[in-house]
Design goal:
The protein has 228 residues and is an alpha/beta fold. The protein contains 11 helices and 5 strands; from the N terminus they run αααααβββαβααααβα. It folds into 2 domains: 59 residues, no CATH class; 151 residues, no CATH class.
Length: 228
């Protein structure tokens, strides 16, 4: 089942315009149903294997949304980023960096992209991910310019300038924790202390003016593991 229209129509036959109301109606109607009544009840309620298959297909497609946004976002940023004499050397459009160090490398710059819209609350997973990208860019040995492109910079900069403990930020990434400890030991206690010394190493830029479609939506990464 690959036709999006077919998937939508099959799901709508079951969910109706309001899934909550539909489920409440089914919960009420199913009371008293016996084994001999099941087949006719399920048919009347739009419950069938086709609907289940459509839901499974929709779940599979939804799992690719963040990766799709990441790829499209990077590609649509290129016309705004590239300078007249600049040429793309490599990109990483999928989840993670697929063997490449950064999302984008040109003859003039290396860059990472994060197409998430922060709510401004306690967002430790997003903070950890942004600090990882910032740190790897800042410590990368290259003469090229370094950029971190974000969908809005206010909350990220507040975090980078703030007092969150580095022990907390690095606690879930053993590899990054070792890199940091080997280079700095206990020289920095908080994210803000590190950023104060290294703020000039990476340019942080807002892509919202170029990607208004994302800026208008609240694109959130799953807490289980944010997409780069």
């Amino acid at each position: 089942m690959t036709n999006p229209a077919d998937i939508r129509d099959l799901l709508l036959r079951f969910t109706g315009p309001d899934l909550t109301q539909t489920l409440a109606r089914i919960e009420s109607a199913v009371r008293g149903v016996a084994a001999k009544d099941c087949a006719s009840f399920l048919e009347g309620a739009g419950v069938g294997r086709e609907a289940l298959a459509a839901a499974a297909e929709m779940k599979r497609l939804a799992g690719q949304i963040n990766v799709t946004i990441h790829a499209l976002g990077i590609l649509l940023c290129l016309p705004h980023i590239l300078e007249p004499e600049e040429r793309v050397e490599c990109v990483s459009l999928g989840a993670g960096n697929t063997g490449r160090e950064f999302d984008l490398e040109t003859n003039l710059r290396v860059a990472e992209f994060k197409f998430i819209r922060w709510r401004g609350g306690a967002e430790s997973i997003r903070q950890n991910s942004v600090f990882k990208d910032y740190l790897l860019l800042a410590e990368h040995l290259t003469a090229k310019r370094k950029y971190l492109y974000l969908l809005g910079t206010e909350h990220a900069l507040k975090f980078l300038r703030g007092g969150r403990a580095l022990s907390s930020v690095l606690s879930r990434n053993d590899k990054l924790q070792k890199i940091f400890a080997d280079r700095f030991g206990e020289a920095f206690r908080t994210v803000g202390e590190y950023y104060a010394v290294h703020a000039g190493a990476v340019q942080i830029e807002d892509v919202s003016p170029w990607l208004s479609e994302l800026a208008e939506e609240l694109i959130a990464e799953p807490d289980a593991g944010p997409v780069d």
